[in-house]
Amino acid sequence: MTDEPSGADDPYRVAEMTWREIETALESTSTLLLPVGTTEQHGHHLPLGVDVYMPEAIGERVAERSPALLAPPIWYGVSPHHTFKPGTFTLSSETFQRYVTDVCASAGRWGIENVVLLNGHYLAQDPELEIVVRELRTEHGLEAFHAPLVDLFAEVAEEIRTGEVSFHASEFETSIMLELLPELVDMDAAERVDPPVESLPLTEYDALGDNKVGWSLTAEDMDELTPTGNIGDPTVATAEKGEALVDTAVSELCRLVDALEDAD
């Protein structure tokens, strides 16, 4: 990958292109980036669309640098644990899996060979998207990949974090939003909410924590854990941290896209 964006003047946002422009673009790429998120509460200081805004903006930066098309995002996901606050939408796991699978499979019919699912609702809907990837590969012949954002920037996040816990709408997500869409962040309303002092072994309340056995929260669990909706400390978030996290995610995804295109 070069330092300068390649093909930045070429269209890549599928929703803004004509079918003839798509046809032309497929001569240069067979990779589709699909931002997958959900619409759910993110505390007092962040908007409901965080989990879509993040992967869509990161996908846009990737498509500016590497040969890929950027699909319209998936706005609704699996968020039953956030329904304790108004504004949250949620789908059943089965509906969500079928919907994402059908979107990707339809792209395969018009020439897409590689699909990268950019997951902004990481941890919570990782299990569903792993199933989607398996079906896309085994049933539809697509080279599919699940890319949870937290996995892409985990090493850098561990290095730059200053808060002890960043689980939901806290240091990482708030920092990324301060970098990408600061006008949607109300830092004056941000509040620190600490999780329980102790959790069961292998089940830490942290995006980079020791969550090894697999678990999920209910709306009742979340209601007991947080009065504001976030868990962790968003007050330590900065745009500088967000820039480091975003740059790392973009770089990692560009490496994947470039390798996929070189292999075609």
Automatic annotation (TrEMBL):
<dbReference type="Pfam" id="PF02633">
    <property type="entry name" value="Creatininase"/>
</dbReference>
<dbReference type="InterPro" id="IPR024087">
    <property type="entry name" value="Creatininase-like_sf"/>
</dbReference>
<keyword id="KW-0479">Metal-binding</keyword>
<dbReference type="InterPro" id="IPR003785">
    <property type="entry name" value="Creatininase/forma_Hydrolase"/>
</dbReference>
<dbReference type="GO" id="GO:0016811">
    <property type="term" value="F:hydrolase activity, acting on carbon-nitrogen (but not peptide) bonds, in linear amides"/>
</dbReference>
<dbReference type="GO" id="GO:0009231">
    <property type="term" value="P:riboflavin biosynthetic process"/>
</dbReference>
<protein>
    <submittedName>
        <fullName>Creatininase</fullName>
    </submittedName>
</protein>
<keyword id="KW-0378">Hydrolase</keyword>
<dbReference type="GO" id="GO:0046872">
    <property type="term" value="F:metal ion binding"/>
</dbReference>
<keyword id="KW-0862">Zinc</keyword>
